[in-house]
Amino acid sequence: METHVNFMDDIGIVKEFLVESNDHLDDVESRILQLEENPENIDMINSIFRPIHSMKGSAGFLGLKDIGKVSHELETLLDEARKAKIKITLEIIEILYEGVDILKKLREAIAKQVDNKNTPLEVIDYHPLLSKISIILGHSQNPVQQTDTQGNSPKEKYLGEILLEKGDISKDQLETALQEQEQEQGKRLGEILVEKGITTTEKITNALKVQSIMGKPSSETVKVDTQKLDNLVNLVGELVIANALISETLGNTHNGVNKNLSHLNKIVKDVQDQVMCMRMVPLKSTFQKMARLVRDVSAKVGKKVRLEISGEDTELDKTVIEEIGDPLVHIIRNSIDHGIEPQEERIVKGKAIEGLVRLNAFHRGGNIVIEIEDDGKGLCKEKILKKAIEKGLIEENDPLSDQQIYNLIFAAGFSTAEKVTDVSGRGVGMDVVKKNVERLRGKVEISTTEGKGTKISIKLPLTLAIIDGMIVQVGTEKYIVPMLSIEESIRPKQEDVSTVQKRGELINVRGKLLPIVRLHNLYNVKPRKINPWEALIMIVEGEGRRCGILVDDLLGQQQIVIKSLGEQFGNIRGISGSAILGDGHIGLILDVGGIMSMALN
User: Fold this and answer.
1) Which carries the bigger pLDDT value, residue 410 or residue 296?
2) pLDDT beyond 80 at 165
3) Residue 572: CA atoms inside 13 Å, Cβ hemisphere, count?
4) Nearest CA to 449 among 384, 374, 398?
5) 100 class by beta-carbon count within 10 Å (0-12 exposed, 13-18 middle, 19+ buried)
6) Which burial class, exposed, middle or buried, applies to 400 when counting CB atoms under 10 A from its CB (0-12, 13-18, 19+)?
7) What is residue 251's DSSP assignment?
8) Neighbours of 522 (CB within 10 A)
9) What gap in Å lies between CA 76 and CA 96, rounded to an integer?
10) Which pLDDT does position 360 carry in this prediction?
11) Closest by CA position to 53, among listed 82, 84, 30
12) 456, 338 in Cβ contact below 8 A?
């Protein structure tokens, strides 16, 4: 194990290595899945070999011995496979997966130390993996191919070749050093050349950099620190607010001014769109991780399950992508454990033995929708109702719609599993899904057909920094309602509004009775209009329920830059944030689900 950490000398290079290695490992993990389906595919073996080889090279350059050792052994195993000296078996696939997991742990341990120098480097025992690889290679290992300190294959330039071309060493000196390297297995060529005084550490470092550049394809991208990107997003947000204030102040004063303001508005909007695009990341990496999850969970529960992925190139804000992984894990695990039937049951029902889980992403109305669909047994309403009554979540005679019944699975501690397993049954998974998605200002919807399967749709905003909102007026106050929550706005007739005992005020919307929520009562504001038929009612939806919110007037739709209310006001029910409006005043952003909980419970 590593006893001292010399990689801390250059944090910048280490951080770059951490980003690159994370991409490499995600890529390798997805390709192992493809290799498992087609173990004879040499191109696929090569596509796994290359990222592992790159990691080994970078780890050697930075002195990360543990990552170097594991990468080297995996590389050797893959090299034997691509030369057709060993066949890819299920045992080798499992070893490759184990190797990826260990490299991820080793990488995570280094990342923690980079974040905090005082964090002790976690010791991860990878020797059982090396033993497994040694056993497999025992009958196939040929004399070790002559490699340089980076372990390059003959197709790539050796470190020695680069030093020769630069005139830093002679051919005789290189041969002497290579002979010594053969005798002292594991010792790097660069170390030997420096120890013998043949060349200097600086010249070796320069040669390694040349080698690294030669091994990488040219790229037109520039890596930017996430914090710098966040600062830019905040500054553009301030620019949007300042632009709105200027437009409000100078608007309608002069035709020339209006024309210039219109041009400025367009430029600010374009800048805003470009900055938001810079934070967009494809869902591909997140979706690929789910493929590994399906494989592992289906094997654990003894079912054959296939994952179909589409829409992986759909882009989402980096922050949203980081948060959405956990909900997807819980939903997919539930689909496999609860949704997909055992093989015998599927045969009886005339279904294919292999279960199917579909993962799809697409744009809809300025939002991203992620769908997780299975061809399992679907949700059983009677079973859910029975369990919910047992748990005291509902009363036996409560009138619930199908959607409200299905939404009960999101309640904390709710589970229809007969017993707790390693995979599910503790009643925490779907609760976590709902909380995480709502924290991202998204919505979860369930549609199911008993015996046919279940589809769970997650609707998410493209970004967390800006929302499309409708500005409404109540008395002298202005509030912002997210457009995602609004279904329609109406001015009701007097005969459509009624009061029912124990249910309060109701509005009849095309034959359906919906409760009316008066914002002025909730926030102690004096309204300009008391009667609903004189005011406006916004029909909104949140947390599976609908209601009508009574407001004096609609002032128009606007892109809103969200501002936090701060720690002191972080948990106010019904309010999710604030925004600076065009007139310079603060507008509160309403949380529709929270408002219904306050007013209707």
Assistant:
1) 296
2) no
3) 18
4) 374
5) buried
6) middle
7) T
8) 16
9) 12
10) 93
11) 82
12) no
Q: Is 532 helix (H, G, I), strand (E, B) or coil?
A: coil
Cβ count within 10 A of residue 62: 21
Place of tokens 């689909």: 335
Enter the DSSP assignment of 142: P
Residue 398, C-beta contacts closer than 8 angstroms, at least 6 positions apart: none
Residues 499, 503, 504, 505: what is their CA dihedral angle, to the nearest 10 degrees?
-60
Residue 487: CB atoms within 10 Å: 12
Backbone angles phi, psi at 570, to 5 degrees: -70, -25
Measured CA to CA, the distance from residue 146 to residue 142 in angstroms comes to: 12
Residue 460 exposed, middle or buried by CB count within 10 Å (0-12, 13-18, 19+)? buried
Q: 487 phi and psi, to 5 degrees?
A: -95, -45
Query: What does DSSP say about strands 443-449 and 453-461: parallel, antiparallel, or unpaired?
Result: antiparallel
From residue 441, how far is each of 164, 209, 411, 434, 517 by CA, in Å? 60, 45, 18, 11, 21
Q: How many angstroms separate the CA atoms of 541 and 433, rounded?
A: 19
Helix (H) or strand (E) holding 75: helix 65-82
Give the phi and the psi of residue 147 in degrees, each rounded to 5: -130, 160
CA distance 408 to 545: 12
Contacting residues for 118 by C-beta, under 8 A, at least 6 apart: none
CA distance 31 to 46: 10
Taking the alpha carbons at both ends of the chain, their separation in whole angstroms is 59
Q: Which amino acid is at 299?
A: A
pLDDT at 196 over 50: yes
pLDDT of residue 151: 42
Burial 408-437 (b: 16+ CB within 10 A, else e): bbbbeebbbeeeeeebbbebebbbbbbebb
Q: Which residues have C-beta within 8 Å of that of residue 198, sequence separation ≥ 6?
A: 169, 173, 177
User: What is the average pLDDT score of the chain?
Assistant: 80
Nearest to 95 by CA among 80, 112, 113, 115: 80
What gap in Å lies between CA 531 and CA 507, rounded to an integer?
Answer: 12
Read off the pLDDT of each residue in 410-437 and give the average, rounded to a whole number: 63
Percent of the chain with pLDDT over 90: 10
Task: Average the pLDDT over 156-185 and give the result.
Answer: 72
Q: Give the residue numbers marked as catalytic.
A: 53, 75, 334
Which one-letter amino acid corresponds to residue 437?
V
pLDDT of residue 361: 92
* 453-461/315-317 β-pairing: unpaired
d(CA 136, CA 78): 11
- 247 and 261 Cβ atoms separated by less than 8 Å: yes
Q: Are 361 and 314 spatial neighbours (Cβ–Cβ below 8 Å)?
A: yes
Query: Is the pLDDT assigned to residue 532 strictly greater than 60?
Result: yes
Instruction: Count the neighbouring beta carbons within 10 Å of the beta carbon of residue 160.
Output: 24
Q: How far apart are CA 36 and CA 294, in angstroms?
A: 14
Q: Tokens 């909380």, residue? A: 435
**pLDDT over 90 (residue 273):** no
Q: CA 70, CA 53: separation in Å to the nearest integer?
A: 11
Give phi and psi for 443, each to the nearest 5.
-135, 150
**Residue type present at position 314:** T
The token pair that represents 340 in the structure block: 């997909």
- The predicted pLDDT at position 1 comes to 41
Kindly tell me if the per-residue pLDDT of 140 is higher than 50.
no
Strands 367-374 and 486-490: unpaired
Query: What gap in Å lies between CA 320 and CA 462, rounded to an integer?
Result: 8
Q: Residue 541 pLDDT more than 90?
A: no
